Amino acid sequence: MAPLSSLLLAASLAGAAETPETIKVVTFNAAGIPLVHPRLGARLQGSGKAIADGGFDIAGLQELWRDKDSASLAAASGLPHAARLHRRLAFRTGLTILSRWPIVRTEERAFSTVRPSLRHLFQGETVPSKGFLFARIATPWGELDAYDAHTLADYRETKYRLLRLTELFELAEGVLELSPDRPFVILGDLNSGHGDREYDLFLDLLGLSDPCAPKGLEACGDPRRAKRIDHALVPGRLAANAARVFDDSLSDHSGYAVQLPRALLSSRAKPDPARRAAALRAVVEETSAAIERLEGEGRRASWIPFYGAFVSARYARQAARLKAVRERAASARR
């Protein structure tokens, strides 16, 4: 019996054009926080139309917190297949992957970091989970694993670099678990970029290249920020055309598109052993330092009536999760 993915792909391509020369992917943060981001309905329609007009085959979307918003954008995009875990009581991760071709497997994972405090309630950090969405897509070239990720953002008064490092480590380990010896592409708003320690370590963990920054030199840019934080990443040193796309009125983020050559289907995660070992050592050392700080701050705050107990419990919970991450990194080193 033919594999399910082959049957689904044959049905979807019946009467369609011949196999494409490239696969066009795009990553885009749609800025979809209800009551916070303005003109949400009109922007979602415009974003979907921009995906359709651009002829994209796969789209990794972030900050689509409501199912109806995801469905609205998907309908306007013309892409018939979607990966999304529907919201029940929680907001989940706000991630959606759209595809021209059938999706044969889907999984979503939330990062283990404790959500930030109520100070960021209206920036989309406190209630939802940050994490990644995985979709295995039956392309005309064969199956391709697509990842869509969103990590914690920084704010003027608070920086979350260490927590982002643990999130990117969990993403890297998830890719190695779900896509061993398989081609993949990682799309998403990683809230960090070239020159940021956590981002550079992430590239080393998987041996990734950034088509928007060949040889480490920024080519796409982001006029709204000092540094580009939205990415489309591939394993190895694959040469691919990349560009900033979409009208600035659609979101407070830019979209980034990459035309992936057929060689992607022969690419695998093969990180340089020395660079990966150094990155894993950095994860262990930095989580150890963070655990020590959290435990010390918890002890110092414990004497304050009521509030001290709350803070101490929160720090203890975060420290426990960081210890689990540290153990995973230490195990990977071994």
Tell me what the structure shows:
With 334 residues, the protein is an alpha+beta fold. It folds into two domains: 263 residues, Deoxyribonuclease I, Chain A, CATH 3.60.10; 61 residues. It is 36% helix and 23% strand. It has a six-stranded mixed beta sheet. The chain has a six-stranded mixed beta sheet with strand order 5-6-7-8-10-9. The protein is globular, with a radius of gyration of 20 Å. The N and C termini lie far apart (41 Å).
> In CATH, what is the class of the largest domain?
Alpha Beta
Strand content: 15-25%
Supply Rg: 20 Å
Could you give me the name of the CATH homologous superfamily of the largest domain? Answer: Endonuclease/exonuclease/phosphatase
The residue fraction in helices comes out at 25-40%
Low-confidence runs:
none
What do the pLDDT scores average to?
89
Q: How many beta strands in the DSSP annotation?
A: 12
CATH architecture of the largest domain: 4-Layer Sandwich
What CATH calls the topology of the largest domain is Deoxyribonuclease I, Chain A
Tally of helical segments: 7
User: Separation of termini?
Assistant: 41 Å
Computed structural class? alpha+beta
Q: Which sequence of strands runs across the widest sheet?
A: 3-4-2-1-12-11
| General shape | globular
The SSE string, one letter per element, is HEHEHEEEEEHEHEEEEHH
